[in-house]
Amino acid sequence: MKKTLLLSLLMFCSALFVTAKVSKGEMEALSDLYESTNGKEWVRTWDFSTPVQTWYGVKVEGDHIVEINLFRNNLKGTLPVSMDKLSHLKVLNLAFNGLTGELPESITRMEKLEVLKIEMNRFKGELPETLGNLSQLKELTAFNNFFTGSIPSSMGQLTRLRVLNLSSNSLRGAIPEELGKLTNLESLGLFENTLEGSIPRQFGQLVELKELILANNQLDGAIPSEFSQLASLEILQIQNNKFNSLKNLEGMNTKQFLVFDYDKEEAKLNFKEIDFKKTRVADTKFEDEDDPDHE
């Protein structure tokens, strides 16, 4: 039955090649994706008797598939290894579905990919070390999955990256210092993993960073003095870790802070530049030397 269905799908695809001028390999990859993620049960499914450019979530430019957006579309199953046949794909959004299994390494051969959104699924296993091959990537969001292992150091090669969110997984080990090379990064989320060790001093090079979420890990040591270089930072969440000193936060340019969360009861910091009317602060004790009640 499955072979008959697959043959029928491929026959429909063959009829579309002339209309859409999309390569056989790309059409086969779409067919594999449909089959492996239970396409018949999608909220909005694909009709293989119609031109590919009319399919839900698929964008065609010229002769190639450049975008697949199947956000919250009830995809269930695993991703096929043939994904790399979509060699011209720029956007892949599979977020908020029920995808399982490991992230195929073949995805890291999609070298034109600029946006990869796979958050809120059930992926497991380690993130491929070859993720660093995606040199055009600007956004990678993979939060709320079951990824394990360490953060690949090769991700330091993704120098175009603006958004990286690996929160709410089971990632462990130290944060790679190579992430400090991502100088275009505006948002970094590593919340709720089991990361340990100190924050890399190289994070001081992330001068475009506006949001840094490191809460709910096992990070320790002192906040690096290089944090004083993060003049664009608006949101900093570092609560529920094991830091032994926050003193270097006092040297930061904090005028832009909208959110600052650190919940260690005994933390005492002297900030004079925070506008507390605009800043949310979690259970932190601050001291002002000009305050008459300050001893």
**CATH architectural grouping of the domain at 123-286:** Alpha-Beta Horseshoe
* Main sheet characteristics: 11 strands, mixed
CATH top level of the domain at 123-286?
Answer: Alpha Beta
* Percentage beta strand: 15-25%
Low-confidence stretches: 14-18, 284-295
Query: Which whole number gives the mean pLDDT?
Result: 87
What would a concise description of this structure say?
With 295 residues, the chain is an alpha/beta fold. The protein contains 2 helices and 21 strands.
Structure notes:
This protein has a domain at 123-286: Ribonuclease Inhibitor (Leucine-rich repeat, LRR (right-handed beta-alpha superhelix), Alpha-Beta Horseshoe), CATH 3.80.10. It is 11% helix and 23% strand. The protein is built from two helices and 21 strands. The strands form five sheets. An eleven-stranded mixed β-sheet has the order 1-2-4-6-8-10-12-14-16-18-20, with no helix packed on it. Strands 11-13-15-17 form a four-stranded parallel β-sheet, with no helix packed on it. Strand 1 (58-61) and strand 2 (64-69) form a beta hairpin. Helix 1 (2-20) packs antiparallel against helix 2. The chain is elongated, with a radius of gyration of 23 Å. Residues 14-18 and 284-295 have low confidence and may be disordered.
